[in-house]
Amino acid sequence: MGNPKAFLEIHRQEAGYRPIHDRIHDFGEVEQTLNTHQRREQASRCMDCGVPFCHWACPLGNKAPEWNDALYKGDWELAFRLLTSTNPFPEFTGRICPALCEKACVLNRFNHEPTTNREDECAIIEGAFREGYIQPRVPVRNGMSVAVIGAGPAGLAAADALNQMGYTVTVFEKNEAAGGLLRYGIPNFKLNKAIIDRRIKMMEQEGIAFRYGEAVPYAAISSQLAPQYSAYVLATGTPTARDLKAPGRQLKGVHFALELLSQQNRVLAGIEFSKDDRITAHGKDVLVIGGGDTGSDCIGTAHRQGCKSVTQIEIMPRPVEGPDDPQNPWPNWPRTLKTTSSHEEGCTRRWNINTLEFLGEDGHLTGVKVQEIDWKPNPDGGRPIMVAKSEPFIIKAELCLLAMGFLKPEHPEYPANVFVCGDAQNGASLVVRAMASGIETAKKVNEYLTK
Question: pTM for the complete prediction?
Answer without folding.
Answer: 0.96
